[in-house]
Amino acid sequence: MNQRPAILIARAVFPEVVARLREHFEVETNEQDAPFTPAQLIERLQGKVGVMTTGSERIDAALLAACPQLRVAANIAVGYNNFDVPAMTAAGVLATNTPDVLTETTADFGFALLMATARRICESEHFLRAGQWNRWALDMFAGAEVHGSTLGILGMGRIGQAIARRGAHGFGMNVIYHNRSRLDTGSEAACRARYVSKAELLQQADHLVLVVPYSAESHHTIGAAELAQMKPTATLVNIARGGIVDDAALAVALREKRIAAAGLDVFEGEPKVHPDLLTVPNVVLTPHIASATLPTRLAMANLAADNLIAYLGTGQALTPLNPSVQAGQGR
Ligand code: DGY
Description:
alpha/beta; Rossmann fold; 2 domains; seven-stranded parallel sheet; five-stranded parallel sheet; binds (2R)-2,3-dihydroxypropanoic acid; oxidoreductase; D-isomer_2_OHA_DH_cat_dom
């Protein structure tokens, strides 16, 4: 009997997904769920043709050179800044991600974080838990209006559009957006969103939600200069990636009340968080959980598994990032 292909699941995933993969492959898992160092990952990948990754595993030229049998890396995430896709394409290694299955869940969370930030939910809960609530006051934790306000969205892909629909149709918000390319008129109408320049977006938004992918070009898209253009009453929400916001500059802007508040699900250098963000009261901090519902995380893991099964079985993945590799350029 032919030896079955060997794969590595780099982080702990749901048992039912591991069981599905075991029907097709020799599977090595990481039950401890401790992220591998780059050297450990290379060691574990010896003899493996496939790997299931999360954002904590980097697939770059050095790893590809050290793992000549690797043919496919399936990320359990829609974002893939942990992949050097050009290096993977050059090496003939297929990259896949998990679009669509997390869109609505992530948009729900973006909206939840916006609401918690604008309406000061966490700050007021801490106050109550600390036993500081001894009288009601008219202006106590008075926050920013959400309904009828101006929602700005930077990055109008699938998740940006899902947030726009919630704002426009659910909360009667005036939705403006900026994106590398403008949406077609049908998509703009569905989101009731108006395209503006980045400067207009910064200046006009009451609530600015960031949903742009991370790359060298989007590094510190929001820094001190951009924060200075925002309204002093504005809130900023980052559910995209750490590094899109200059966290040190944001902490200063929050402390000096140059903007009202921020809601952050992602951080530069996470899981570390800039210490100054931990001491300012007007920020809501969550540990990169925007897509974290059990059904969605299961759907993401299953899609990554489907990509491994399909590509290693038929040569055609479901959601390839570098499809030229499928057209005969692969290892
Ligand atoms: C994604 O899918 O990109 C989420 O941020 C989880 O990593």
